[in-house]
Protein: DUF6830 domain-containing protein
Amino acid sequence: MQSIAPSIEQVGSLLQWSADTTEHAHIEVVKDPASSTNNHNNESQICRCLDRLKKCRCFNTAVTLHKSAHSAPQTINSQPCNDSDAESAQEDITGPAFASVLDEIWTAQRSRTNFFSVAARLAADPNPTLPLQTFIGGSTAIHLNLSPSLCRVPINHVAQIFDLPDLCGALSDYVNHKDPSVQNVHSFGGQRRCPPDVYLPFKELHVWFRVRLQQMSYHEPCSVSSTFSVHAHPPDSDKWKYGRYDAAILNVDQEAEWPSSGLRGHAVVQTHLIMHPVSPRGTVNPFTNRFLIYVQQFNIVPQANGSAVEHTTGLHVLKRATRASGSVLGEIFPLDQIRSYAHIVPRFDRTADNRLTTSNSIHFSQSFFLNKYFDKDFFYAIS
Structure:
């Protein structure tokens, strides 16, 4: 991506694409084909390589069509057929057969899972296993895998794995200022109110690295939209050296409703931990009836022209929220307050940071765009 940084400034803002998507396209149509060249006349050799790939795809499509046309069952008939019968048979082959092949090529082979139906079925079960791992929060269906990624891990160990030194304090604030019997909306607080060594009624956590979210279509409330995954993956030694923590929309006002309220009453957050407190063996704890998330907040930066969005891109500008002490503003929330996946794009300065890659650009950046162009339902919700 650094090699094409000068062209970014010349072209201007790519409204519909994030830097990640642009870099991915650059890899597919430039870098990969260039790797097979002899480093001379790169442009012509790259074009020749792309042309060959296109011909291979067209050939595969033609072979598939040919096989489908000749795989239709043939009926044995000793009677001679006239021209009209032949034309009718030809139409049968090139009509429905052709359409079925196109469906096979271009249509998704797997049906879309309706998590709203799954949640309703689980809620109607007279003897459910609580807490439900597929449930509805507001207008969003939320799904967790049956088995957690990490089982019964001590809280201090989780804090080390995810590099969250204030995790114990955040859990203490949540436990000491939250009535577990009341399903009201939790909101961001001010300074950390509890010391990190305060007593907690649980000592271990189940941890998930991903949660799946599904909403109804914005203009067709009876039709489910695509499912998006929000990742909260700790650092590893392979690709995600600094972890993979996706952004999301979180409801912080019980009077607001997503998506009709837009960003009013909602916060843009970065999800760092998806967890479930585990009661000590032989005990029952009211705080274990809900899944929890640890998130860090982004503030929406007001623009000089009085608008909420940046005038060139039409996107909201985000910055990491901090406390008065300078520490990042992180809090514990019930998972059922999450409403949508959010796609954030690093906001680059005039000078490109040569450390940035697809896996660390969110970690090193401090300013972001809230990309509303990645999904049409999200676009309508915040526009």
Observations:
- Confidence is low (pLDDT under 50) at residues 74-78.
